[in-house]
Every structure is written in structure tokens, then in C-alpha cells.
Amino acid sequence: MAGIAQDRPFPPGDYPVVVVGSGPGAIQLSYSLGRLGVEHAVISSDPDAGGMFRRFPFFQRLLSWSKPYAPAAPGTRAYQRFDWNSLIAEEPEHNGLMPRLMDGTSYFPSRPEMELNIRTFAGRTGVRVRHGCAWESTRIEEGPDGRRFVVETSDGPYRAQVAIFAVGVAEPYVPATPGLELVPHYADTRPAETYAGHRLFIIGKQNSGFELASGLLPWARSIVLASPSAAKLSVVTRSLVGIRARYVQPYEDYVLGGGVGVLEAAIERVERVDGGFRVVTRPSRGGDPRAYDVDEVIAATGFVTPLRDLPSLGVVTFGQSRLPAQTAFWESATVRGIYFAGTISQGAAGLKKHGMPANSGAVQGHRYNAVVLARHVAETHFGAAPYRRPLDADGVMAFALDEICGGPELWHQRAYLARVIEVDPARGISDAGVVPLSHFLDAGGPDSLALTIESDATGGIYPVVYGRRNGQVTEYPLPGDDVLQFDGQPQREALGAVLAEFGLPASEVARGLAAADAGAEGMAIPGV
Amino acid sequence: MIQRMEVADELAGLGLFADLTSAQRQGVAHTFDEQWFPEGERILRQGLTGSGFYVVLEGEVAVRANGVEIATIGRGDFFGEISALLEEPPVADIVAVRAVRCLHLPAAQLRELLLAYPAITFRMLLEQTRRLQNTNRWRE
Fold first, then answer.
1. How many domains does chain A have?
2. Mind giving me the DSSP string for A49-107?
3. Which chain B positions have a beta carbon within 8 Å of A352's beta carbon?
4. Number of folded domains that form chain B
5. pLDDT, tens digit, 9 for 90 and up, residues A334-387
6. pLDDT tens across B4-40, in order?
7. Range of the domain at B68
8. What ipTM does the predicted assembly reach?
9. Which of A322, A349, A457 sits opposite B35 (nearest CB)?
10. Statement to judge: residues A232 and A327 lie in one domain
11. Is B1 among the domain residues?
12. Mind listing the pLDDT tens digit for each residue in A75-92?
């Protein structure tokens, strides 16, 4: 067991929940389950925490940033909006860890800094993992106490009522194009200096392809990137869809004629020729095939979800990444009791309003999915009381303004997670926590308001309130703001009109997040 | 394990994309993203903004206006084009009658697709004409 963390808790046996994985998704989930008192085992084949960040990104610098200096004080809930990489804790001292571990040379953490961030969070919050314990197979066992999942591992079997897989989307995917088996995948890229003076062809025009192109610009003699559809830039799509700003340099070189080619073409085949490769392409918009003779080819063709034998249990997968089909609460849509956390949670796509996807594929999105999932599992499988925090009628306006101004779940998971305020004559007014928006819209329930932040097709960002009365849901978009301050007079008037429809006053008492924005330490931290 | 058919190959069997070349189908396939909905889930929601355009690859959906089912559609059919092109909320719910695998395109990109591929536009026009004809027959 050389190199494996020495603490080996959770020996094989029976547990209420078993969590597989030790990346940010699994660590966040384990933390949140623990705070809710849900007993569980965490197992991972890796020797330590960190997940994909133990190895990737290849060029050792993340795409997502954490601002050391931000409009909100570090450690506060409002600060999370400006920190895309820290995990989320109830204790202020465990929040906002990432910027405290960065060396200050960039607001994009390095890969080792991110790995340290995950390990440090686990260590300080007491999240424990049985490392060096490889998930090998899965089966379902019917017993006198009901159905259980049996997770067979290199250390022996784990039996659990609920199994949660946070194993990433990390298995290299290579399409069945003839000849692609001859060339390395992104995951097998060699050190950059070994490409010095070479002609390079990269198959794939998503972030992994452009990351390689960016890193190899100083080394490769020429670079061609190709895939059938047009390259998208995130600054154009106004979302995380497309090539992120950090990797746009090769695209600029292409449009300025600087030795980079960007093709819209299908790859027909790759052949080995003397001293290199021939890539035969066919333009997507018509025209004759064209061959490119190069020294090196790399298949930046993406990754799939390593679900092992889960499909044989009935877990349906879809799409190129083989993501499992999921309910709004990240449960397998076809095998109840199996859940997914971490980047796999992007399989629950939500509404994709105006074409904008959620950020579930990244830490700043799926960390909130994990917090919501933990509560859902605690409530639906282990009898935890639903989260309800009473609100005074006079406090609803201030609470709603706080949430739309800085509620990090709403800002990072736009049109995906919603803060719910119940206006139930029987139970009174209460903060009912954060839930997936699609669940609020479709599941029914008492009269309630759901608060979200959304983006439209033009890139405008604005708050939206969904009001449910007598089972019917109405959408109330609130005015936006040029500098995204959603507590101005236009927003107050529009929000007040919605509250009035629910018999709530538009008055305002002390606001929590506003205090946090000013750097004050204390604020009521709404749960989820 | 059964090898999953590449989406570009699946498009070849759908009327909407039948007139495209193989390379064009690959380009179009990469434009869409794939989604999966369990039985009973709403795909489009009546009255809510920001919906998209969908093409059914597997399964069946019901069209429900004000809670009343007015049609069911299946493999190869499409929906959401009216609200996408007119930039208005859908006038009906679209609900998965049984599990649905489909392709999704954001509304703002449908116009671009139709201008780039007239063969798709013509096929969509044909289908819309048929739907209009059926509606007129029903009225008679």
C-alpha cells in the first residue's frame, strides 16, 4: 500500500450509504452527508483525495478562478460567487480555502494548488476516505430488509441501501474513426518540449483541444485543429459552452493567419505514412476531401463516464459522454437508489433555458448539487425533517433581495437551482431551502415563490421569480441591471408587486447578505 | 455491450435530415446536444420562456395544451420550433409518454441552422404544411 493514505477507515461491510470517489464531488457530498448525520462509507481507488485534479489539466493550470480580493469578505456565503473552486462548509473557517492556498501569481489556481485545496478541505473538516479501495462490480441483493446494492471492491463487498457514484467523466473517449487507434488521446499527451518543431494535428475543438494547442504554441511548427462543427467561444455563447478565454490564443492566431488552422471538417481516417501521419478530412459544408501530412496527431475527443457494470443493472446512459440519465435530484432515472455526484451530475440537465446549461460539469456548480443531494438523501431515505426556516412576513422582501443579489447557489446554477419560500396558510411563511428548479416547476406543492438568476440569449443576466398558487406556476422576470446590482428601485418595485400577489408586504428589515457585502462577519446562513 | 450508434448515423434515418450529405450530418450532429427524459417528465413547459428545439430519437411525447392531450409524436418528429422561431413561450406542455432520447438545440441557434442548411428548412416546411393540412381537415 505504498503511497496510499495510511488512514483506512470504512472496512467492507454494511452501511446505510456508500459513496464511490474522492474528487471534489465525493468530498463535498461526504461533508454534507456527515453534517446531516447520515452514516456512510467513502471508498476510492486513488491514493489520496483530488480526483481528476490529481492529474489534469495537462498544462497544470485551471480554467476556473478564485479571486483573492472580491466585493464580499472571504469565508462569507456572498464570497462564494467570486470563488469557483473552494468546497462549501457550514463553518466559516472552512470556507474560501482555495485563495488561501494560491501563490498569488494568477487568479487561476495551478493544478497542484487545486489538488491541495481538495485535500485540505477533507482534512480540516474530517472527511475520511478509504483510499486504495477499487470499485470492481455492482449487484442488487433482495433481502428481508429490502433491496440493497452490493458494491464489490478490491477490499471486499460493501452493502448499502443507497449507492452514490462520484467517479468523474474521466475515461478517455475515442470515436470509431478508422486509424484513431494509432494516435494518442489527450490523456496521453507527451511533455510539451517533445513536440518541438513538429507539425501537429489535433482532432477536437473543445477546451481540451484548445488547451493543448495553447500549451504547444511555443513548440509546434504548425497546428491544425479539426472537428465537424464550428468552434464556439465562451465569450460569444456567454456561458461555459465553448472555448474558454484562457485558451483562445490559438483561435486568434488562426484568424490573424499565424500558423494555426481551425477546420470544420469530419475526420474520415488517419493513416500512418513515412515519419508521421496522414489525416484525411471532409469539409462539413461540402467540398472534396483533403489530406494533411503531419508529424503528430492527438485525439482530443473527450471523456466518458466510467460506470463499469451499472448499465447491466439497468442504469441508462446517453450522449457522447455516456452520462447516466438522472432525475432532477441526480438519482438514476431507471434504477432507484443509485445517485450521482460531482461532474456526472450534469446528466440532470435541467431546463437549459435560453440554451444556457447549468454549471454542473464544474466545481462551482456541482458543489451545490452535492449539498442539495445530501439533504434530499437524508430526507427521502433516512427520515430527516424537511428543511424549513420560519420567516416573518415583514422579512420576506429583504430575504428575497439577499438571495437574488448574492445567493451563490442561484448565481452559479442559473435557472437550475432555486431558493424556495413557502407561503402556506397552514404552516406559515418559511424558507424551504434550495431545490432544482425543474422539481419546483413540476412536483407541485403549497403556494410558494422560487427565486432564480437566469441568462437570456443576448447574455442578459436577471433575477426571475416563479410563483406557484393553487398548483399553477407563473414566471415573473425581474428587471436586470448593467452592473448586476439587483436591489435597486426597479427590482424592489417588481419584486414587491409579486409579493403583493401572495399577500406579502414589500417592507424590508435588516438584510443579511448586504451586511456580508460590506465585509461584516455575521450573517444568517440559510441552509439548503 | 451493444455499440451505441453514432448520432450522425442516426440522423440519416430521420426525415428532417434525409437530404444532407454524410459530412453535413456530422456537422449538424455536433451542433445539437443529446438529452434523455424519463416517462412523465415535462420537456417543454407551457407559458415559460426560454425553451428550445427538439428532435425525437427514441420514445414518444404527448402535446398537452391546458392539460388536454391533443397529439402524440415519436421518433423523427420535432417540436419547439414555433416558440423558438417566434421567440414566444410554448402554448402547450410536451411530456414524455415513455422514456425519450432526443436532440436539443437552443432556440437562438435554430435560425442559424435553417439558414445554413436549406435542405433541413425545406423538410421542416413540408412537415409544417402537413400539420397545417391535418389541422384544416380536423376543422372541416
1. 3
2. S-GGGGT-STTSB-SS-B-SS-SS-TTSTGGGGGBSS----SSGGGSSHHHHTS-SS-S
3. 52, 104, 106
4. 1
5. 999 999 999 999 999 999 999 999 999 999 999 999 999 999 999 999 999 999
6. 457 888 999 999 999 998 888 988 998 999 999 999 9
7. 7-139
8. 0.92
9. A349
10. no
11. no
12. 899 999 999 999 999 999
